[in-house]
Amino acid sequence: MSWQLFFDLDRTLWHHEANCADVLAEFCSEFPELKHLDPAHVAQRYQVINDGLWEIIQEAGYGVDYVRNRRFPFLLQELVPELPTKERRELAEVLERAFTQRTPTRGATYPAVAETLRLLKESGYGVHVLTNGVTSSQERKIAAMGLTEVVDSVTTSDASASYKPDRGIFTYAMRQAGCGPEEAVMIGDSRLRDVGGGKAAGMRTLWFDAPDALPPDGDSEPDGTFHHFAELPDALRRIGA
């Protein structure tokens, strides 16, 4: 049996906070309306707003445009309320376009991601990405990390018409990989969406609990846990994969 590994992307392979903060810091340098702001504070408030909007669409099944039409208007309303409404709306549109174009080109990962995935691939594992996101953006992120040739398949919420933890996206991903749940492992940072969703789909699960991770978003118990990608091969062996 050949084990198939399904990795979440954002906050598991691709360092969401670092890459977003990089682009937002550029905005604070480039746009006069933002130059008085602390880039770290902008990034922190962006994450809170963006995460909240993603929670809404994942629960309700809305498209990603719901997030894209709101995150920068909400952020600017909070950080630069003195801007006239029309200027704030126009600036939000410019920032959203630039953000959507730039962030997928940034390739910061968690330590040892690339070398570990290559090692696993060489050892005979199938390597797949299973992500709540837009296909075009997520494929660009994989390319920015230098992992296009390592990844065997990419399943996104827009391609599968479902969001983790819905069983449909996991079934779609396993069909793409040509495997059943008995030979599949879901690996990700979310106890709710990755661990809970993977377990419900019959997969084995590993929780990536990074040192800078957000607090757990659920209480589903994984089959195993690792804190650094160098630990992943041993974590897989411990769960029999």
Structure, briefly:
Helix content is 50%, strand content 11%.
Topology, element by element:
Blueprint: E1 4-7, H1 16-30, H2 39-60, H3 65-68, H4 71-79, H5 85-102, H6 113-122, E2 126-131, H7 135-144, E3 153-156, H8 157-160, H9 167-177, E4 184-188, H10 191-200, E5 204-208, E6 224-226, H11 232-238
Parallel strand pairs: 1-2, 1-4, 2-3, 4-5, 5-6
Describe the overall structure:
The chain has 241 residues and is of the alpha/beta class. The protein has two domains: 4-15 and 108-238, HAD superfamily/HAD-like (Rossmann fold), CATH 3.40.50.1000; 16-105, DNA polymerase, domain 1, CATH 1.10.150. Helix content is 50%, strand content 11%. The protein has helices at 16-30, 39-60, 65-68, 71-79, 85-102, 113-122, 135-144, 157-160, 167-177, 191-200, 232-238; strands spanning 4-7, 126-131, 153-156, 184-188, 204-208, 224-226.
